[in-house]
């Protein structure tokens, strides 16, 4: 399995290139922002860890 990271500043086009890759190639796309938001949702272990800091 290979992993490719896409980085860049705000408005650099990261989301657009990921949309293109997702539409034209058979691969899974994971957005770190989405994962980070899910980890911080109330009721999750990540949320509890942040509260305890």
Gist?
With 53 residues, the chain is mostly helical. It contains 3 helices and no strands.
Describe this structure in words.
It is a single chain. The chain has a domain at 29-53. The protein is an all-alpha fold. 51% of the residues lie in helices and 0% in strands. It is built from three helices and no strands. Its EC number is 2.7.-.-. GO terms for molecular function: ATP binding; dephospho-CoA kinase activity. This is Dephospho-CoA kinase. It comes from human gut metagenome.
Strand-helix topology:
Layout: H1 14-24, H2 32-39, H3 45-52
Return Rg in Å: 15 Å
Individual helix count:
3
Q: What's the end-to-end separation, in Å?
A: 35 Å
Helix fraction, binned, reads 40-55%
The computed structural class is mainly alpha
Shape: elongated
Mean pLDDT: 90
Largest sheet: none
Low-confidence stretches: none
Instruction: Quote the beta fraction.
Output: under 5%
Order of helices and strands: HHH
DSSP E strands, number = 0
Keywords: ATP-binding, Kinase, Nucleotide-binding, Transferase
GO biological process, one term: coenzyme A biosynthetic process
Organism: human gut metagenome
GO molecular function, one term: ATP binding
């Amino acid at each position: 399995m290979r992993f490719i990271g896409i980085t860049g500043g705000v408005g650099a086009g990261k989301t657009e290139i990921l949309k293109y890759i997702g539409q034209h190639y058979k691969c899974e796309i994971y957005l770190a922002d989405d994962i980070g938001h899910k980890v911080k949702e109330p009721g999750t272990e990540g949320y509890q860890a942040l509260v305890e800091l």
